[in-house]
Amino acid sequence: MKVFDLDIKTLAVLWTPPFKRSAVFVGFLYSFSRPLIDLYNQFLSSRKQNMIRLNFNYQTCSLEHRLNDAFDPLQRRIKISRSKIYDSIFLYTEAEDNGFNNKTQWLHSDENPIYLRTEGELYTVYDFIVQIPNTNINLFQLQSEIDYYKLPTKQYKIELLP
């Protein structure tokens, strides 16, 4: 961006009076401007990291894209999946059923049986599962990246793929 494009050495020379622009004085200016140049470079790298972080959010597709960019940019094998094992089926009484929208399902069907499960079987502790390849990915760095983007109420689990 043009706002942050600065050439500090050129500005230091341009802001000195012309009669003081000798080679020795310009060398002193360069040596005194070096800490400011280092600070400017740190600012630019921090700004670049912040701009990358602002491009992503908590959504699954965005988080998966960010994790693949950061940890597996070539093969992009990191996947995020739901942790729900079974889809739930709601049981209705006859009073809840209406004539316009029949919600009745028969439990004794040979071709497509319906299985009844408890709440413990339907729901898991985790909201999503991050599947990563079994490579040398730093798990602490991966966890901090996921924790930065995920919503505070969401729980996740990291699984290693073979």
Class based on secondary structure composition and strand pairing? mainly alpha
Largest sheet: 3 strands, mixed
Q: Span from first to last CA? A: 43 Å
Note poorly predicted spans. Answer: none
Would you kindly provide a brief summary of this structure?
This protein is mainly α and 162 residues long. 41% of the residues lie in helices and 10% in strands.
Q: Would you mind describing this structure in some detail?
A:
It is built from five helices and three strands; from the N terminus they run H-H-H-E-H-E-H-E. The chain has a domain at 7-55. It has helices at residues 8-14, 23-54, 60-71, 119-122, 139-149; strands spanning 79-82, 128-133, 156-161. Helices cover 41% and strands 10% of the residues. It is mainly α and 162 residues long. The mean pLDDT is 86. A three-stranded mixed β-sheet has the order 1-2-3, covered by helices on one side.
Question: What structural keywords apply?
Answer:
162 residues; mainly alpha
List the helices and strands and how they pair.
Layout: H1 8-14, H2 23-54, H3 60-71, E1 79-82, H4 119-122, E2 128-133, H5 139-149, E3 156-161
Parallel strand pairs: 2-3
Antiparallel strand pairs: 1-2
Helix pairs in contact: 1-2
